[in-house]
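Meet today's protein:

…
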Amino acid sequence: MTTTLERLTTGDLIAAIPAILEHFPENRMCLIFTKRGHIDMVIPATIDQDRAGFAAHIARVAHDCQMEAARIVVVAHPDRTSAGLEFADLAREHLENHGIAVLSRAHTWRIQRGAMWTDLDTHSGGTIPDPATSAAAVAVVAAGHRILEARADVAARYIPTTTPDFITRRTAEIHSNRPGFAATVLRELAARIAVNGYPGPALAARVSILVTLDPAARDAMLGLGLIDLDAAASIYIDIANQLRGLARAHLLAAAATLYYVTGHGVASFEAISHAQTAARAAKVENLSMINFVTTAHARAFRPDLIRRFLAAGQIAAAKFGIAVPDYTG
């Protein structure tokens, strides 16, 4: 969904960023790209990276995606402000070299009500309105999302919880030997996604076996995401937090893929980072989905390039007797 830029002041734009990203960025340069007068793509880039390399790369991506203009907001603490302003200079240079107009560049140390922002080109400024009451914030909350306060809160979403007990795991193992085990588990997952319900330890134990042993079922789980992409990603994280090792890695990779498709870049990056950690703990390398999503982030692939996995997942789910909606995003 795009957001109009008509009559949107710099202060309003800054206040809307947490709602668009679903977290409050810190020490980031936020690039807000527009097409036909609407926000089309928002990318938060960490200041502490190869700034020249990123600026050159994102300019090419924006050009390929036919972005028409950009606004730049640097959110940087005092000790990172100088590096952030250098980043903004590099970004403007590369974007303009690719024919993308930079309409404004602003800096603030923190996005909160009453904080000051400064225009980097005119040196004018103002105060930021309450981010919680911005039109964008109202929209995402109404849609059932939550705006996280900071990156630490995003990371907290992936803290492992208690694993299923021995009896629960043993029961799942017994059930896994019965005909139709995979289809039964996938149907239960589909039902849970449809109501955005919490997956308990019994389901987590069964899913653990399924994703570890059955690649076709893993494909089908991406297809189940078409029931409700955000709910599926959240449920996969809830299950992953009850698991360890390879099973956790597979679940988080699936969640990262769904988040990437829906444009939740920060959540996707966090999920795939934890998937990588789980895979390393299991001493497993070259998991295809982890590698692909990691590459997508590194090269800023367009989400529509990832959506083919959802189509394949829809076909895989159908083979288990589960019909899911077509992708309409």
